[in-house]
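Here is a tokenized protein:
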Amino acid sequence: MSSNLGILTVCDHNVHQWNTYKSRLRQWYIANDITNTNDAAGTKRRAVLLSALTEGTYKLAADLALPKDLQEIPYEDILTLLDNHFTPKRLGFGERHNFYAATQQPGETHTQWAARLRGLTAHCSFNNVEEALRDRFIMGMAPGLEKEKLYALDITQLTLAKAVEQAETVRCARAGAAAAANPATMPEQLFKIEKSDKSKASAGKVKCAVCGYNNHKSNECRFANYVCKRCNTKGHLRRMCPNKINYVNTGAGDESDDDVYAN
């Protein structure tokens, strides 16, 4: 037995749109070569459809078929039952009201706005869909330079596609100009000077009170028993001496030298 092509998911009317699922079901039939010719009675297509319904959706279909048994109703009749139930009746002016009331939402790009607007025309029965789309696209745009530019164009030469392209061009140009005029918005990391590894290592250590180095603690310093040549006190070197007055320079060395001796 050959395997089926494509993936046919179950249909739950609480989750899926019936019209969308029905379209996918037909594509699955085509992929698996199930046609009116080799399934004239629709028996196989009915079996596939009913087996793909969830328990709740199957019960709903069975209730709609009463007093007939769902399994005995022709495939096309089952589709009609589900179409009549799931597809609401469309009122032309109600659909057009939704179309004309639509506006571009915050964060919605111009291409997204145009695509959403096109979806609203499905049941409007416009004589000239493209003209209606172009007009509503421009009139419903969010206020800004893009809208102002489109208002200044010749309406006789402007299509929806050109309007979307023009709006995107202006948006990109405006964003580029704003970035160039305000370099302060560039990431701070570009201007940050990192400390060297040596500086980072020394920054986290405490200076020894005995010798002044920061690679060990004061109670571990090997000069702890040395006598300071500045104040003659044991416990620190001359460079760390707190007494700045009692030292007399003998000329034996500069301030950076530490001639140390143990007591």
Residues 196-263 form one domain. The longest strand covers residues 226-227. The beta strands are 226-227, 261-262.
